[in-house]
Every structure is written in C-alpha cells, then in structure tokens.
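Fill-in record for Matrin-type domain-containing protein.
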Amino acid sequence: MSSEIEQLRSNQEEIEYLEKAIVKAMFFKSQNPRNVILADYIIKIFLDEIQSRSVQALKIYQDEDHLKREEISFLEGNRTGPSSTGNRSLDVWLNYYEKINSLKDYHEKYTPYGTPAEIFDDNWFFLHSLDDKSRIPKFSGQEGYGRYVDLHTNYMEFMNLKKIQNNKRCNFKYLDYVAFLATFDQFHEIPIFCKDRNYEVYMENLLIYLKSFFERTQPLFNLQQMEEICNRAFEEAWKNRNIKGWEFIPKILRVDPLYCVPCKKLFTNRNVYKAHKKGMKHRKNAERIAEILEEEEDFSEVERLKNIARKESFVTRLRENLGDIIEDSMNNIRKKQTRTAEELELYESDQEEPFKMPIEELKKKSETKKKEESSDSEQERPAYNPLNLPIGFDGKPIPYWLYKLHGLNVEYKCEICGNYSYWGRRAFERHFQEWRHAHGMRCLRIPNTMHFREITRIEEAVQLHKKLMQDHQLDMFRPEDEEECEDSLGNVMTRKKFNDLKRQGIL
C-alpha cells in the first residue's frame, strides 16, 4: 500500500528545498551580469516545480479517494480480518512492523546493491536545474546573451515596403539600422493607405520577434497577462477613437448612405452628395485612401485595420518595456562603427559561446569538495572584496595602494558625454578620443580638436568655440588695413589713408 502521508511529507520537504534553491539562484544572479537571464530561467523552473508539488499536496489534503484516511486508521491500530488481536495498543505495533517489513522488501527488490542514497536537498535541485538542455535560452550572436536586440531581418523587410518608400509624405526613406531602431514604433507617422497586406505581414513578424525576445530575456514576466491588459486598453481606445493615427476611421463604413468616407463628411441631401462626389477635393481624398476605404469595402476591411492597430499598440507597449535594451543596442552599433576591421575580428574572437553553463562548473566544484578538502576549494571561493575594488587579471581584487595610486577612487563626469562617469585620471584623459565624446562633440557641431582637451561642460565648449572663431577672424589678412603706400615725399601710410588724402587733393 502506497504511503499517502509519506508522499505528503516528501512534497512539503521538497517545496522547502526548492525555496532555498531559489535563494541560491538569486546569489548566483548577483555574481555576474551574464548570469541574470540564466538565473531567471532557473527560478522559473523552481517556481513551476513548487506549483506542481503544491497541487499534489493539495490533492492529498482533500483526500477524495479516502486513501489518507485509511492509512491514518491503519497507523492508529485498526486491523480487520483474522490477523487482528482485538487489542488496539498491540495492533499499533503489529501494523508498524508490517509497514517496516514491506519497505525493506521493496528496497531489496528495486534498489541496486551498493548504490548510495542520493540526497535531494536545495544544493541538488540547484545543480540539476538545467539538466534538460532544451530549457536553456538561445540567442544569436547579434543579441549578445540578451543584452541587445537583433531586428536586421525586420529592418530589411520594412525597407522593402514599396508604398512607404515611394510615398513622399513619409520620413522613413533611406533609414540606416540605428535610425530604424529609434523610430520603428512611430506608426502614427505612416499613412493608413500605406498599411496594406505586406505591411500587415511585417507587423506580424515584428510582433513575433519582440514577444520571443521578451520571453527569452524576462522569463519571470507574465507576457500573456500584459497582452490581455493591453488588448482591453486598446478596445476602449478604439471605441473612443483615441488611438493616434487612427482617429478618422469611421466606426461603421455603411452607417449612412450619405456619409463621404474620404472627406469624413455627412450630407443631408442626396443631390448635394452627388454634386460633392464630382468635386476635385473629393477626388483627391478618394485617390489618397482608395486602397483601404472605397465605397465597395465591407466590414472585413475595418476588422483588418483594427487588427493592424492592435498589433501596433502591443508593439509600442513592448518597445516601452525593452527601451533600455534597444538603447544599448543603438550604442553598441555606434561603437562598432568606430572600430576597424582588425578590432572587430579581435572583438568577435574574444566573445564566449552563449551560456558556457557555469552550473556545470559548480557541479565539478561540489564533486571535488566531496572527494577532498584542500586548499584548491578555498581558492575557488569568491574573493573577499569589502571595498569593491576592481578585479585584476588573476581574478582577485587589485591592491588598495594600486587602487589609490591610479586614482580609481576619483570620479570624473563629462557633460558632453551625457554625464557619463569615468573613474581614474587615465580613463578620463583617454575618453576624449573615444566614440562617446566624439559623438557628443558632433552633436554640438564643434570639431573635436586639442583645443577642447579637458573641457567637459557644454557651455564652456561652446564659449571656447566662439572665442576661437573670433580669434580666427582677427588673424585673417585684410588688405585695406595692412597694405602700405608711400607718397612723393617718402611718407609711409596705409592704403586707406593714402586714398583718402589723394581724393582731397593733398597728395
């Protein structure tokens, strides 16, 4: 007879171990920025395991099949049949030894000889959390372990939308990839007549990628719940026509036969309506939105447009949640653009493979600790670093005197770089020739020359630039003021003074 009480105790014990394993995953998450996404996946696995074990424990508590009640009655000494002695206190011990013998027989039959019992504690759950390799998130090289987005495919698809590229009113012609990342959520600037079937396919692919990237980078976030909330808000906004760029879409195209859809105007007289349709203004508006709002269009076209608007609304919501990652992607691309081909090859060679499974290393460490306790185990522990000093090439904090010698405790802020902080004099002096400072100077339309060395404030840079321009004007050669002439008596004077005296007849 299976033990329901033992199963209940095992489920509750494993739930406690899983909670402790979540704490281990949180510490593992704080050790290295590359472990953040992996630790979130581990926590999600533990939460799913806790949920499943809680469901099993709840079923045992409810005891719908009355197995728990029978087992409790058996342990209390209730026996039936000829083996019963009639003495309840004696039957308790008979039931106890009968249960012990059944457990021994089971383990002798199914447990291999000499196999040590494996302890399923919090450390075991943590080390075996990723035994299933299919649960490990996969990222492309451009995504960089989930730190950046990779929208190159969507960018090429957007640039091949002929209606948008051929429209003179659109500002999306000849966009580079960085500009696309900055403006791909500005759907209100795209005319509605450009949102055809190809645009709908582009929106579908863009939404699929953003949802996939969001689920891979934030596994603990409930994306389905956020989508439901976004859909409810969209339905309310669509009903009130408060969505930017979709205000002029009528609620029902055939609500009134005298309603002019292209001109968004309702007439009271049929003759006036017919005369209006012959006008030049109506023809221009009809040509502008002919492909989506013709008189022959039915309600399915409005539903198609509503579906596109819903996707745009959800993409905008995802863009808000992924704003920091997209900004980092733009900065990373700008940084790559400043590198040479050799530097890019070195950068790509230094990149590690996605997720080298640090948990596998933890498994090896735990095995070595079980075999021998030596000085090697102490070296593998995290270095004691209460002062939060930089880590050297040997994996240990650098000496404090070296930290003070290089001035790494001194913070330098550069307003031109967007108030970016540089620690140490060497890093501060080196940043004047780096891409971030050069980009800031280009935004100010100031050349990044040696005159602006040590200048970190925008106001000072602008004033110095004006001063240099004024000095340049003063140093320019002016023939009127510097060219000299001599009269018949040998008097030397400037050309301007000579011409004035000559006009007066003095010379």
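KEY FINDING: The chain is about 55% helix and 5% strand.
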